[in-house]
């Protein structure tokens, strides 16, 4: 990432990105869950638009792109920490929060590439008010067809469909702690306690209503511990572009390894 007034000495172009994707085995027909940090690439000619263009041109319409579009602001205010909210204001927030719409709702810390991708023609969205996904390409409708309100990253989720389709995960300048599909391993291993969450959703009359739902207390901070395992077993393919680390791996293999890890380390035996 360049600082103000710092001279740019290297640039990344769409062709550079496409070449790297090809080196990682990505091509027409590939099915990818993508996580990205635009700033990690340095100066990209055309910015996020170029990254999305490169992804679409690489996988083509015969392939599929999947990205989380999580609306982190549409969560229960009792759990907010940055900043915390005075308890006397919780009800007012719940009553005033607009229903989530992945096309227009604020996406907290999802990145410029996701922001660009969600506005592209042909992109579809899953239905969850907080943990939604956006998808484009051949299997977009299948991936987004149904996402359960309760336990949204479990078996009725785009992550589970990605597992069944034997898709890959592409990480552009990000770590495994951002890999949304790995949460599926937390559900399958029963390694987390159950919590009650809440979000604003549209009601049948077109208004909004605060809806409670069940989920697990997921924790992505442990995902980085899987990296040595994935490297040792040859599951993780990686390269570098302009000092940005770019990696790719089969989602199903990584999820299976994550399940083994949680089975060895889980402390919540009460929930098994």
Please name the defining characteristics of this protein.
alpha/beta, two-stranded parallel sheet, 272 residues, 11 strands, 9 helices
Write up this protein.
By secondary structure, this protein is an alpha/beta fold. Helix content is 28%, strand content 21%. The strands form three sheets. Strands 5-6-4-2-7-11-10 form a seven-stranded mixed β-sheet. A two-stranded parallel sheet has the order 1-3. A hairpin with a 5-residue loop joins strand 8 (194-202) and strand 9. Helix 1 crosses helix 2 (47-59). The mean pLDDT is 91.
Q: Helix and strand layout, with pairings?
A:
Blueprint: E1 11-12, H1 14-23, E2 31-36, E3 43-44, H2 47-59, E4 64-68, H3 90-96, H4 112-117, E5 124-125, E6 133-137, H5 140-144, H6 158-164, E7 168-172, H7 183-188, E8 194-202, E9 208-216, H8 227-232, E10 237-241, E11 244-250, H9 251-265
Parallel strand pairs: 1-3, 2-4, 2-7
Antiparallel strand pairs: 4-6, 5-6, 7-11, 8-9, 10-11
């Amino acid at each position: 990432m360049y600082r103000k007034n710092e001279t740019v000495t290297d640039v990344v172009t769409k062709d550079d990105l496409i070449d790297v994707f090809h080196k990682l085995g990505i091509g027409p027909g590939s099915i990818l869950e993508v996580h990205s940090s635009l700033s990690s690439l340095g100066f990209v000619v055309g910015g996020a638009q170029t990254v999305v263009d490169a992804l679409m041109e690489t996988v083509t319409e015969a392939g599929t792109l999947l990205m989380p579009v999580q609306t982190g602001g549409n969560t229960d205010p009792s759990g907010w920490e940055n900043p915390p909210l005075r308890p006397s204001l919780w009800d007012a927030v719940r009553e005033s929060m607009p229903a989530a719409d992945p096309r227009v709702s604020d996406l907290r810390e999802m990145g410029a590439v996701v922001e660009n991708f969600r506005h592209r023609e042909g992109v579809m969205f899953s239905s969850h008010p907080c943990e939604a996904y956006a998808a484009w390409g051949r299997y977009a409708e299948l991936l987004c067809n149904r996402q359960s309100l309760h336990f949204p990253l479990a078996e009725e989720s785009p992550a589970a469909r990605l597992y069944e389709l034997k898709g890959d995960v592409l990480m552009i300048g990000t770590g495994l702690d951002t890999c949304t599909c790995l949460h599926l391993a937390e559900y399958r291993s029963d390694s987390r306690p159950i919590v009650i969450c809440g979000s604003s959703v549209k009601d049948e009359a077109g208004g909004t209503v605060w809806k409670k739902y069940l989920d697990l207390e997921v924790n992505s901070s442990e995902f980085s511990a899987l990296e040595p395992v994935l490297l040792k077993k040859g599951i993780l393919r990686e390269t570098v572009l302009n000092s940005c680390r770019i990696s790719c791996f089969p989602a199903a293999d990584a999820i299976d390894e994550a399940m083994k890890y949680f089975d060895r380390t889980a402390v919540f035996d009460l929930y098994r």
